[in-house]
Structure prediction request, 318 residues.
Amino acid sequence: MMRKIGHNMMVFMSKHMIACDEASFLVSYRSEHRLGFKQWWQLKMHLLTCHLCRKYAHQIKEMNLSVDKYRESCSHDTCSHHLSDEASSKIQHALDRELHAK
Amino acid sequence: MNSTRFLYLVSVLRLDSNSCMPEEGKHILEPQQWVERYGDYLYNYAIVRVNDSEKAEDLVQETFLSAFKAKDNFLGKSSERTWLISILKRKIIDTYRKQYSSKESSMADYEQDISDGDFYRSEGPFKGHWLEGKGPHSHSLMPEGELEQKELMSIIQLCISMLPPNLASAFVMKMIDEAESDEVCKELGITASNLWVILHRARLKMRKCIESKWLK
Prediction:
């Protein structure tokens, strides 16, 4: 009897549960899409039972926030990249050539 | 209204429109100042998106040269800087396209880039579960102080530069340029489902990279 219940549970889980690969994909996918009920439920159940994927989902959220900050920091001229003097004069030289050719 | 009066009015209005707005609000181009004024700005913009200083320098130079050649197309409605950035954007997308078309020559690399094989178990009862050491370890990747914040920014930059080009271009267009998915698909010539596989793969790699550098 117990064995049968165990077997049925295994069959049910393999049919309806998803593994970490699918769950982590859905974590990414849901950022821009509305999940269907089945996918939503499967992800919910997976996150409930898998601490690694819970951490993953949390870190992806943090990473998105950090990438937003990274983008902002670079769009306000605070990014620390500068053209080297050498590159600057090379580009100026190329542009001058065009300017004087006209 | 007779025709002479009408012509007079037209001429006055024209005169007015010229005298009231003597190029006011209209931007003009000063190519000789470009490198000094916008060199760093364009370089910053480019390096965040291509992650290669040499390539970024080339893009800046090409942008200035193309802009100069197309200077007659500048209508003066937008600022000089906005106009230059729009040219640079096109050039960056062209670079991404080239990266994508070169993938055909090395399809095996591309398959490798988008396969999950090195993150999840490929067989056994735990098929599809995280491989040992490939899943997340720490709970948080958030910086605490300003110094840590700065460090995280440079880690993000480093990790983007370590992404394979196929993944990097889609990731940067989506996450840095905040382009719509349709636009990314169109520019890179890929399907929507392909894009999501690529983005997922890029996130897996980015997360792993940030965590390993962050925990050091």
